[in-house]
Amino acid sequence: MQFTLHLFTSEQADAIRRDPATLVAVAMDMHGKNSLYIDKDWQAIHYLFTQHAEPVAGALSSSIFEGEGIGDDLGYGPARLLTPTEVKQIAAALARVTKAKVMARYDAAKMDAANIYPEIWVRDGKEARDEVISTYGQFVSFYRHAAETGDFVLLVLA
C-alpha cells in the first residue's frame, strides 16, 4: 500500500474526468516537483495530524482521505482529486501543525497499538520516527506549493 500525491492543472484534471482511463498514464509520467511519493507513511502522517487512524471531519484528514473519486478502484479505492479550493483549505490547516506538535504526538507504542500502517513504529524506533517526520515536512511543503500555484492534487493509494 503506497501513497502518491500529484499536482494537476485544471486542463489535466478536466482530461482525467472526461477519460479516467488516462489517469494512470498521466500520473505515472509525473515526477519531481509535480509529485510526492510518501510510500507507506500516509497513515502515520494522518494519525500525527488527527490522532485518528481512520478519516475524521476536517481539512487535515482530507489531505489523505478526501476528494472526488476518479476512475476504477486501484485496490484501495479510486484515485481522488482535490480542487484548488480544497487544496488551499488543507494547506492553511497544515500550516498550523508545527513540527514540534507532530513530534509531541509521535508515540511508537500508541501507533502500533492503533494499528497504524505499516505497524513498524516500535520495531524500527528512531529510524521510523525520523522518516515520518521528514515525510511530514515534505507533505506540508507539497500542499503549500499546490495552494500557491492553484493546482489540483490527485491522491493515489495503490
Structure characterization notes:
With 158 residues, the protein is α+β, with helices and mostly antiparallel strands. 54% of the residues lie in helices and 15% in strands. It has helices at residues 10-18, 23-29, 42-50, 59-65, 84-95, 99-105, 108-113, 121-149; strands spanning 3-8, 35-39, 68-70, 79-82, 152-157. It has a 5-stranded antiparallel sheet. 33% of the residues are buried. The model has no long low-confidence stretch (mean pLDDT 92).
Q: What keyword list fits this structure?
A:
158 residues, alpha+beta, five-stranded antiparallel sheet
For the largest beta-sheet, the strand count, sense and barrel status come to: 5 strands, antiparallel
Question: How many DSSP-defined strands?
Answer: 5
How much helix, percentage-wise, in residues?
A: 40-55%
> Which strands sit side by side, in order, in the main sheet?
2-1-5-4-3
The succession of helices and strands, N to C, reads: EHHEHHEEHHHHE
User: Which structural category do the helix and sheet elements fall into?
Assistant: alpha+beta
Computed CA radius of gyration, to the nearest angstrom: 15 Å
Strand content: 15-25%
Distance between the termini: 5 Å
